[in-house]
Amino acid sequence: DSGVTQTPKHLITATGQRVTLRCSPRSGDLSVYWYQQSLDQGLQFLIQYYNGEERAKGNILERFSAQQFPDLHSELNLSSLELGDSALYFCASSSIGGTEAFFGQGTRLTVV
Amino acid sequence: GQQVMQIPQYQHVQEGEDFTTYCNSSTTLSNIQWYKQRPGGHPVFLIQLVKSGEVKKQKRLTFQFGEAKKNSSLHITATQTTDVGTYFCAGPALTGGGNKLTFGTGTQLKVEL
Asked: How far apart are CA B4 and CA A61, in angstroms?
């Protein structure tokens, strides 16, 4: 158990809908990262937050947004969903000064 | 942008055979990390290498960081069925105060009895 909690584990939704994925980092970790993993794209970095502020951005679509709250949990919002958004979405956290990432179990999103 | 490639993409071995995956970055890395993802699981941190030419061992696993800090390798001696999974290398890219960890394309290892 990495100590990173993600909910829900599975999500099935229709095209055009909006979903919110939730992540609680390891106790004491200020950094939260979101990754998308699909079969043909590997692990793609989406966005990083550090203590509530956005710090780094990857190839995150404009339809996607994220935030980190004062209690350090983070949410990834995906809107106007398309079939191609079906993937595993991982959240990871790291400690202050550390670069290694500790991953949650992931949320498997299926868009139908 | 930074790209990290791994070869091979897939590897099937018989139990007891050795296995090696190679990682190459388009840019010099401050460090290289390795992760293992079991089928149906999440990536799990294995190790971090920082120094040029560094070699680290974890039981049957040997990790190496290239002299130019742009490539790395993971070698498994005498594979076991428990080694099955996808192995990723990852390199950090400092961007505007953030820490973007770019993952390699991964090598999927299958071990047959």
From this structure: 21
Query: A99, B97: Cβ pair inside 8 Å?
Result: no
- To the nearest whole Å, the CA of A95 is away from the closest chain B CA by 12
Judge contact between B76 and B18, C-beta under 8 A: yes
Q: What is the pLDDT of residues A80-90, one digit of tens each?
A: 999 999 999 99
Whole-number Å distance between alpha carbons of B23 and B63: 11
Helix residue spans in chain A (DSSP H): none
Annotate B2-35 with b (16+ C-beta within 10 A) or e (fewer).
eebebeeeebebeeeeebebbbbbeeebebbbbb
Residue A45: beta bridge partners? Answer: A35
